[in-house]
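yo

u said u wanted the structure for the complex thing, so here. seqs first:
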Amino acid sequence: MKKQTIQITVNGEKHELDVELNALLINVLREELSLTGAKYACGNGQCGACTVLIDGESVLSCLTLAVAADGAEIVTIEGLAKPDGTLEPVQEAFLDNAAIQCGFCTPGMVIMGKELLDKNPLPTESEIREHIKGNLCRCTGYHSIVRAIKSCIK
Amino acid sequence: MMIETEYLAPRNIDQLFEGIRGRIGQVKFMAGCTNVLPSLRARAISPGLLVDLTGLEEMAHIRKVNRVISVGALTTMTALVSSEIIQKESPILASAARQLGNPLTRNRATIGGNLADASPAADMAPPLLALEATIHTAGPEGKGREIPLDRFFLGPNKTVLGEDEIITRITIPKPEDPWKGSHIKFGLRNAMAISVASVALMLEMKENVCRKARVALGSLSPTPIRAYLVEKELEDREITDEVLERCTVAVNQEISPISDIRGSADYRRQVAAVLLKRAIRQAHMGRK
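structre next:
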């Protein structure tokens, strides 16, 4: 399988990587960069566990070829907290609201929660539920997740 | 594991056709990848060469020039939903874009991809049919053509596009004022739903009388279709219960639904009638 060199910035750090042409971004992040926050779950874009931000926009990394992300700025869940470890308000909210059970959906949910609040600081419950429609959770029943995101509204 | 393939990311149209020369039949065009990648991974397709169209930046635009709205083939669902032009001039298009997939797939799924994939359930097709859209294409050696959307689909996942032809943009005539539209997507859940049936229509209303109608249906036939018999029932008629009943008879003469995991043909026939009446009433009540 042919390879191509790509340049991606991940959580503020520049990387130059040799990837196979058919490599998926989710696998490159997890296996080449050891960023295992984004999860490989359904593998066909239906569950949202692989959610990352590419150039500021939430994207399914299991449906993104690594070569197609050449030149992009990627933020994974590991890149949300500040360098000194201070958590984002939405991350604190998930902790405070028992919105994490097994944790598998959590990176995707947190990224979507942050993205929504950045765009719309006063979302209605309906808007919150709408925004996480691409992220499945098998544990919480979504209630605590919605509550956590809602609690970030000032 | 995914199949082996080559990858090309042209920066412009010339590079694109240069790159695929001699490779016709092996090429799969990709943009948002929300359908292409799942197909590749399921090994439903095995192209030798993936051509990434996302570098053709000209093809991501939403413009209104005089009375024509032009939407580039690479325009994503998210861009359509948040576009002031689309919200104002063709809200039924925004409605369909808003209901495709989920927020994540909408950030990547493109209008050109949805049409080129040509599922009988293609979300964007019914509103575009009701808006009388035209597909603009590009081929090698500067060739390109304009195809009215109602002549674009040939069958499930089959269009008139040649293997070395891409959609560059879609144009719709700007709907003018007495025209009112509505769109209903009916699926088995609130997101990530392949529609069981969908209706999009535009009515030219003069007070209570419908002068002209354009009715489009999705998931009810091998391709998305215009329901010309229904349109005739509405032409120059007041929207009464009797007219609506005649429309439901007409619609069942036009559609040829199948039974599949999402519903039986019988169920689809019943739903089509209900949605059609609902959509006509909605448009009549004045939402554009």
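The helical segments of chain A are 25-32, 89-96, 106-119, 125-131, 143-150. Residues 17 and 32 of chain A are 8 Å apart (CA to CA).
cya
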